[in-house]
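Example for tutorial group B:
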C-alpha cells in the first residue's frame, strides 16, 4: 500500500500544536537563558544595598556611642557642680572614676596647704581599693612622692596615660584651679572587664582635669564660709541674749 501524501487533518493539527509547543518551549528556554544576567544584576544591586545598610548601621552605632559619651560627659559635669558639700563632690569624683572609667583602685591627691613649696606632701582626700596596695607610696593618708608619673603631673599639670616607665599609674589626671595644679587623680588599676583605658576615655579624663578641682574648691570655700557665717550668727545671737 502506498503511503498517503497528506496526513489526516487531525494528525496534522496535532503536529502543528506540537510544533507550536516546541516553539514556545524554545522561546521559554531563551527567556530562561536570558534571565541569569538579570538575576546577577539584581544580586549585585542587592549586595550594594546590603553594603550601604551595613555602612549605615556602623555609622549609627558610632553616633550612638558618641551620643552616649556626650551624655556621660554632661551628667558627670552636672553632678560635679550640683552640690556644695565637699564630701559629696569627692564621692562624685569617685563615682565617675568607678562607673565611667572602670577604675578599681585609685587615689585623689591634694597638696597639703603650702606643701608644694615645702614638704612636697599631698593628702589623700579619697582612696578606693587601696587596702592591698603594695607600692608603699600612699601610707597613712599621705603621698610623699616616689612615682615618677604622679610627681611629674603634680609638677607640670600634664595629663599622663600609661603605661609609663617606672610608674604603677595607669593614668595621672591633674586637678587644676585657675591654671594652678592643686592635686591629681591617680588611677592605679582597672576592673577585670576593662583591659585598658580607651581613646574615648580621654574626653572624660580631660573633663575631670578641668572641672573636678574647681567643683571641690568651690564646695570647700562655701563650706568654710558657711561655717564661719554660722559661728558669727551664733556669736551675734549670744550677744543679743546678754
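The residue assignment follows.
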Amino acid at each position: 500500500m502506498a503511503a498517503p501524501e497528506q496526513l489526516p487533518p487531525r494528525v496534522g493539527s496535532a503536529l502543528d500544536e506540537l510544533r507550536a509547543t516546541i516553539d514556545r518551549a524554545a522561546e521559554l528556554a531563551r527567556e530562561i537563558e536570558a534571565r541569569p544576567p538579570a538575576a546577577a544584576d539584581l544580586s549585585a544591586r542587592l549586595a550594594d544595598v546590603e553594603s550601604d545598610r551595613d555602612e549605615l548601621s556602623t555609622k549609627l552605632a558610632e553616633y550612638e556611642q558618641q551620643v552616649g559619651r556626650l551624655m556621660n560627659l554632661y551628667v558627670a559635669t552636672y553632678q560635679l557642680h550640683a552640690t556644695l558639700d565637699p564630701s559629696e563632690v569627692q564621692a562624685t569624683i569617685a563615682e565617675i572614676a568607678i562607673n565611667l572609667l572602670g577604675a578599681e583602685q585609685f587615689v585623689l591627691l591634694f597638696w597639703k596647704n603650702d606643701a608644694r613649696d615645702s614638704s612636697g606632701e599631698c593628702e589623700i582626700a579619697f582612696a578606693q581599693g587601696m587596702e592591698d596596695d603594695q607600692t608603699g607610696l600612699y601610707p597613712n593618708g599621705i603621698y610623699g612622692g616616689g612615682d615618677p608619673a604622679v610627681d611629674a603631673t603634680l609638677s607640670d599639670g600634664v595629663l599622663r596615660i600609661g603605661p609609663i616607665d617606672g610608674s604603677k599609674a595607669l593614668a595621672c589626671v591633674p586637678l587644676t584651679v585657675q591654671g594652678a595644679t592643686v592635686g591629681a587623680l591617680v588611677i592605679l588599676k582597672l576592673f577585670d572587664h576593662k583591659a585598658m583605658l580607651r581613646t574615648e576615655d580621654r574626653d572624660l579624663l580631660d573633663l575631670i582635669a578641668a572641672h573636678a578641682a574647681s567643683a571641690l574648691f568651690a564646695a570647700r570655700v562655701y563650706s568654710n564660709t558657711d561655717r564661719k557665717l554660722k559661728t558669727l550668727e551664733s556669736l551675734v545671737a549670744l550677744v543679743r541674749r546678754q
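The beta strands are 103-111, 122-128, 142-143, 160-161, 171-177, 180-190. Compare this with the pattern of hydrophobic and polar residues in the output above.
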